[in-house]
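Why do we bother with holo predictions? Because pocket geometry can differ from the apo form. Keep that in mind while you read this record for pyridoxal-5'-phosphate.
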Amino acid sequence: MSKDKLNYRIGLIEPSMTQGISAKAKDMCASGIDVLTFSAGEPDFDTPENIKKAAIKAIEEGFTKYTAAGGINELKDAIIAKEKRKNSLNYKRSEVCVSVGAKHSLYNICSVMLEKGDEVIIPAPYWVTYEAIVKINEATPVIVKTKEEDNFVLDKHELEKAVTKNTKMIFLNNPSNPTGATYEKENLQFIAELAEKHNIWIVSDEIYEDIVFDGYEPVSIATLSEYAKEKTLIVNGMSKSYAMTGWRIGYTCGDAEIISAMTKLQSQSTSNPTSIAQIAAVEALNGSQDSVAMMREKFEERRDYIVKALNEIDKISCVNPKGAFYVFPNVSRYYGKEYNGRKINNSMDFSMVLLEEANVAVVPGIAFGDDDFVRISYATDLDTIKRGMQALKEFLNALK
Ligand SMILES: Cc1ncc(COP(=O)(O)O)c(C=O)c1O
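The structure, written out:
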């Protein structure tokens, strides 16, 4: 790294690997190759009509100027009403900050809270960005592995072992990207108690809360006690529930002093999230939720198909997830084999050879902290899923 140009902090992180594979798949598509893409982290559905219309109306009415840095009151009120409706949690406007996507919310939380010496517990497999934003803020990620046989739910003894006097924060992601793992109240109770005992902040990333199956009802850890609410920062956003990834609206609910610091940071960096997108988000939260239900149903149908198809393949095991739109199959029993003379030793080799030889794009598990797995996103139509599973099967059969 050239020291005369770049600072030390940017050298602490790597570019997002999920975006890397997606970009390569896109390049292959652009050159005319029919790639079956399972690497996307976004719903394949279009943003619902009522939301688009609200944005168009906002433009026509001239709502195109700066707004308050932490979001307009109308959106804060819609978020407050949603948290009350879904989680029976009460927040004031001073406890809500709207940001440019949930990724920005998480980044700003870390920016205003972390410093050198702080440790942040991240259950693995984890969403790639958690580790990066902890590192760029010069704190230390402490990775606690979860196991396939535990459905990727955090083991309380492992968690307890990871806590030190420097533990400042724990990240929770329910339902999880990349595993789709979901937490029951009992699992969360222990985490809340541990947080109370050791004075640890909880960052609860609930962005997949609407994409849940088999009747699972997500519980926010903030609902477990008054103390849990005080120490939890809920992070959520429009991207996944409302197919609004490009609109960039996320939010944080929690401690007023932290929210105020995040708002101050935004006022000196991004300023407000896009005015038009904020109006669209108000409609998303307050308007009809029919499209959310429709998308959830489609995802469940695809989940049912893909989990069955994967488990029918020899030497692949795949946990049946109750949330998000990803499956995380264990492909490690194929390591050591070759395809056309190309050896597969890890999840990166697996994903690269699969993409280049069979035109199927998945994300290597190493990007999420576990090399035995790959992440397959089923945010794509059932026909592509069927063709993809067939191509995967043929690819695996051809491994020697
Ligand atoms: C677990 C998790 N949290 C947060 C985000 C960020 O979402 P947004 O588009 O709101 O920045 C993602 C997006 O992939 C995610 O998977």
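The mean pLDDT is 96.
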